Amino acid sequence: MSVHLKALRKHLRHQRRSVSRFRHKKSQQDILSRLIRFKPFQQAQKIGLYLHAFGEINTNQIIEYCFKQRKEVYLPMICTMNQQLHWVQISQTQYRNKRFSYHPLGMQEPMASRGLHVSTLDLLIMPLLACDVHGTRIGMGGGFYDKTLASARHKPFRLGIAHDFQLLQLRLPRQPWDQPLDALMTPAKYLHFKR
C-alpha cells in the first residue's frame, strides 16, 4: 500500500470517527429517504447490510424499514477458513435483542454456524472509507468484501453508502482484485457507475 493511500485511510478514519451524533442521525435519515425511492432497493427481497461500528453510516433505520417492508435482512459473518463474508439472515427479534457476538476486529456479527454466499443476495449495501467518482471503493483494509464478491457467480447490486466527505474527486488506484461499486449514495448525492 502506498504512503499516500495509508495517510488517506488514516485521515478518513479520523474524520469518520469525528462525525457528531446529530450529523449521524441526519445522514442516516437522508440516506433512508433516498433508499425508499431507489428502484433496486424497492425490488430487492434479500438485502445484505452491516452493523455500523467504526463511524460508518448508521444502519438502524434502514434495517428496521426492511423488516417493516417484509424484506429479508442478512448480515456478514467472517469465515475464518477463507476470509470471505458469509451472509446470515436475522429476524427482527434477534436484531432488537442484539443477539450478536463480537469479532476480534471489533464489529458485531450474527451468532450462527454458517451463512449464505453473497450470490444469493439481491442488493448488497456496503460500508466504505472512501469512493471515487468511478466507483472505486476503499474499505477498512481487510479485503473481505473484495474477496467475497470476486467469488460470486451472480453479483448482487452493490450500493455503497457514505458520508458526503467520503466521496473523493481524485481517482483512487484500482487493483485487479478490487471490486467496484454499482452505485454510491450519500446524504446529498447519488452516483451510478458503469461496471
From TrEMBL:
The keyword Manganese is annotated on this UniProt entry: no
Catalytic activity: (6S)-5-formyl-5,6,7,8-tetrahydrofolate + ATP = (6R)-5,10-methenyltetrahydrofolate + ADP + phosphate
Keywords: ATP-binding, Ligase, Magnesium, Metal-binding, Nucleotide-binding
InterPro entries (alphabetical): FTHF_cligase, FTHF_cligase-like_sf, NagB/RpiA_transferase-like
GO BP field: folic acid-containing compound biosynthetic process; tetrahydrofolate interconversion
Binding-site list for ATP: R137, I138, G139, M140, G141, G142, G143, F144, Y145
PANTHER family the record matches: 5-FORMYLTETRAHYDROFOLATE CYCLO-LIGASE, ATPASE INHIBITOR/5-FORMYLTETRAHYDROFOLATE CYCLO-LIGASE
Record-stated family: Belongs to the 5-formyltetrahydrofolate cyclo-ligase family.
Enzyme class: ligase
UniProt-recorded name of the protein: 5-formyltetrahydrofolate cyclo-ligase
EC number, as in UniProt: 6.3.3.2
Binding site residues for substrate: L51, E56
GO MF annotation list: 5-formyltetrahydrofolate cyclo-ligase activity; ATP binding; metal ion binding
Cofactor: Mg(2+)
Keyword hit for DNA-binding: no
